[in-house]
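Researcher: Structure for this, please.
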Amino acid sequence: MKNFYTFLLTVFALNLGAQNYTSYFTGNEENIDVDPEFGICLMGGAGESDAGMAWFLERANGGDVVVIRTSGSDGYNNYMYSDLGVTVNSVETIVFDEPEAATDPYVVDKLNNAEAIWMAGGNQATYISYWKDTPVEDAINNLLNEIGGPVGGISAGTAIMGQGYFGAVAGTITQEEALANPFDNQLILGWDDFIDAPFMENVIAETHTNDPDRIRYGRIFTFMARLGFDQGIRPLGMAPNEYCAIAIDENGLARSFGEFPDFDDDFVYFLQPNCEGPQGPEIIEENTPLTWDRSNEAVKVYKVPATIGGENYFDLNDWNSGDGGEWENWYAINGELSREAEPNAPGCILGSEFIEKLEISIYPNPTSDKLKIVGLNGESEYEIIDRTGRFIQRGRSQSGEISVQGIAKGIYTLKLRSENKVGITTFVKLN
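Model: Predicted structure, token format:
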């Protein structure tokens, strides 16, 4: 919603003497044990998308929701518990008053028994200082990767969800400062040492991108340039505008929630270096404005209208397919960012230069023992990946057939590579 408001009705608040946290609890005090559904919800800040939050809460499957933050109070409790029409057992907000709260037995127990964890807005530098390398980090990663439940955040809570992240540990930075000097002392990026979220590999997330007082499109562009330079990776970016949400399900489909077209700036963005040629910046040096041009096509961006129904999406399995959005080219010359419409999707898929898509179909789906592949000529290499992003099985297909007898029941991604072509699809494994 466009105006964030706070509800003060809570069951009780705890703030005892030497206690290092404050708890606000709403709902049923008796813990219940249900199976949640996987989900990642990234909100852009300033205010929540009600539809995006409802999507997140539904994935808790009626269980217990824990909100964590290092400032503020109980503004989420009644909003989550009763205002969105989604039934949950309880909502508890835990405010970390001191770093020691991250190891407090009560806090750790609540997080380990949560069916959903939400990270409020605030200061990501404090979140990193308080939660990194603690049982809080362990609980978040366990919910994402072992239990398969929903985790989300807004503003600072979104900013720390990628494999790469801007932690603001030396203060914030404007897009003008970042573009003018990609090695500014305040541009410090964390990498692969905090939250381990499926579908967020090589990703850095940005928030408040369209805030008129702090436009940040140039920041995430520069962050990606630095990650590629520092880590030798093909960096990816996700950026929901304010009041918008990116909602990633177990199949890697990232839906966009907001209030477009009533609000004509409700968009989310998915950024990747152009894979059809050299990918890195032409000039990325200390105290020198960034030039990442590549013939005005340095970064390919899928711009998706964020609607109440969330019908528009981008497929994170190939970073190429989507519905309802349009492509843009972003590039920078001498520290000046430009954004232009692009009529065509990239001709290759994630992580591959000059790779074409392999059109395939599989059957039976669901299956209990074998997959047969249609559209494949000869042998191919294949990978089977579970919904947390882990590789379950690798090999070569024989005669267009793959055995999946040894795989547990669940939903999987199948990736095939043959003759410089790659095909990606999903399948369901039965008992």
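Researcher: Any notable elements?
Model: The two ends are 43 Å apart (CA to CA). DSSP finds eight helices and 27 strands in the chain.
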